[in-house]
Amino acid sequence: MSDSPSSNHVLVPVLPLRELCLFPEASLTTLIGTQATLRALEMAARTGGQLLAVQARDGQRDIHALGTLARVREDLALEDGSHRVELDGVERARVVTLLGSDTLVAEVVRLEDGDEGDEWGPAVEALARYLHAHPDLRSFLDQQRRSSRPMAWVNLACQHLPITASARQKLLDSDAAGRCQRIGRGLDALLRKEKGD
């Protein structure tokens, strides 16, 4: 696969995820076991350890147009032939061209996340309120955080909060400011719902 520093385009193997979404600056551990996904993992290992983690819809080729470029942090082969894989999200990317019928390779364009701007403060305040009510989640997110950037908290919240896969994909589709705005509103709505308001 190619990764030219002068270009925003990169060619990478595709790892379709079921009901999961990986965000930049977040990590994800998943089990993979189909021949197609194992071949994608092998390709990534031979070409720098990078792949596109993208939420699948119904079939292997039916994926969302926007996913996250990820580095394979750990790949552990299990006795049953499946692999436990830990991925670190690097940056959002949009599929330009999709190749293959079983194992997929995509040409993607890297997407700037943009500046979270004034939206970051209210999002972090909403996250603090939510984590205050869920100390176990706070402890979990502390263990998952690998980036010192403040936006990492928002991305971790987007990935690990109890929301639907389609809601997660909408968050990933948004730039940083939009993600902050959406997660801030969503967290306050979740708290109100939990409290029965």
CATH superfamily of the largest domain: LON domain-like
How would a crystallographer describe the biggest sheet? 5 strands, mixed, barrel
Query: How would you describe the shape?
Result: globular
What is the quaternary state of this protein? Answer: single chain
What is the total tally of β strands?
A: 6
Q: Which CATH first-tier class of the largest domain would you pick?
A: Mainly Beta
Given the structure, what is the number of helices? 6
Q: Assign a percent range to the helix content.
A: 25-40%
Describe the protein's architecture and organization.
This protein has helices at residues 35-46, 120-133, 135-144, 151-160, 165-173, 176-195; strands at 9-17, 27-32, 50-55, 66-77, 83-99, 105-110. By secondary structure, the protein is of the alpha+beta class. The chain folds into two domains: 9-110, Archaeosine Trna-guanine Transglycosylase, Chain: A, domain 4, CATH 2.30.130; 117-195, no CATH class. A five-stranded mixed beta barrel has the order 1-3-4-5-6. Strand 5 (83-99) and strand 6 form a beta hairpin. Helix 2 (120-133) crosses helix 4 (151-160), helix 2 (120-133) packs parallel to helix 6 and helix 4 (151-160) crosses helix 6. It is globular and about 50 Å long. The N and C termini lie far apart (52 Å).
